[in-house]
């Protein structure tokens, strides 16, 4: 079953498309889109199908600038503020909250994990640095999330490939930042990782 709702945020209305797992859900996964894309990106749809099969309800979140018809992304602080408001509006009573997204959406989920009380984050094509600028690393955003993280990345991503870590699993697929290949493998990685999360996983502190 699919539901679509608008959620008021300090930055204007966001839109959440909900897809439900069969039976009683283990939790809620909220996924955000990339800077210039939408929630219909193939990797987001593959992750959604995998998560619902693993027993999670999924919400695909469109940021207010996209709902308003703009393609140019809002400033990071505005994205984080809107995302936090959406999580507060839709997560209560949904069980453990897992947040994530692709590219810019993954960065937002990591930056706000503590504020939203997320129990874990799913990052698709996390942009480790601007193309050709490895000195401008965004690794602290991943490190500071404070919760288990799954990163699914293209081997030839020009935005870089994050390293693994004690609480971070990195899965490499053929392809680049668009993650247009190996969607079955992407879905399998997401489903297996979500299924392995302990029930009642503690949120970020």
TrEMBL record:
Residues 27-161 form the KANL3/Tex30 alpha/beta hydrolase-like domain. Pfam families: Abhydrolase_11 (PF20408). It comes from the Bacteria. Residues 1-20 are annotated as: Disordered. One of its GO terms (molecular function) is hydrolase activity. InterPro entries: AB_hydrolase_fold, KANL3/Tex30_Abhydrolase, NSL3/Tex30. Keywords: Hydrolase. The keyword DNA damage does not apply. This is Alpha/beta family hydrolase. It comes from Pseudonocardia spirodelae. The lineage of its organism: Bacteria, Bacillati, Actinomycetota, Actinomycetes, Pseudonocardiales.
């Amino acid at each position: 079953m699919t539901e679509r709702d608008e959620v008021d945020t300090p930055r204007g209305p966001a839109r959440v498309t909900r897809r439900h797992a069969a039976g009683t859900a283990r939790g809620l996964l909220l996924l955000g889109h990339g800077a210039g894309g939408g929630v219909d990106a193939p990797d987001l749809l593959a992750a959604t199908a995998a998560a619902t099969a693993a027993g999670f309800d999924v919400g695909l979140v469109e940021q207010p600038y996209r709902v308003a018809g703009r393609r140019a992304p809002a400033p990071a602080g505005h994205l984080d503020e809107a995302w936090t408001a959406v999580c507060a509006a839709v997560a209560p009573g949904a069980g453990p909250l897992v947040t994530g997204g692709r590219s810019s959406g993954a960065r937002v989920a990591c930056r706000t994990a503590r504020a939203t009380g997320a129990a874990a984050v799913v990052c698709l094509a996390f942009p480790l640095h601007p193309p050709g600028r490895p000195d401008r690393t965004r690794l602290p955003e991943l490190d500071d999330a404070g919760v288990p993280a799954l990163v699914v990345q293209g081997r030839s991503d020009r935005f870089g490939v994050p390293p693994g870590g004690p609480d971070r699993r990195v899965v490499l697929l053929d392809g680049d930042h668009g993650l247009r290949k190996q969607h079955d493998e992407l879905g399998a990685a997401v489903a297996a990782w979500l299924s392995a999360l302990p029930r009642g996983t503690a949120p970020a502190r």
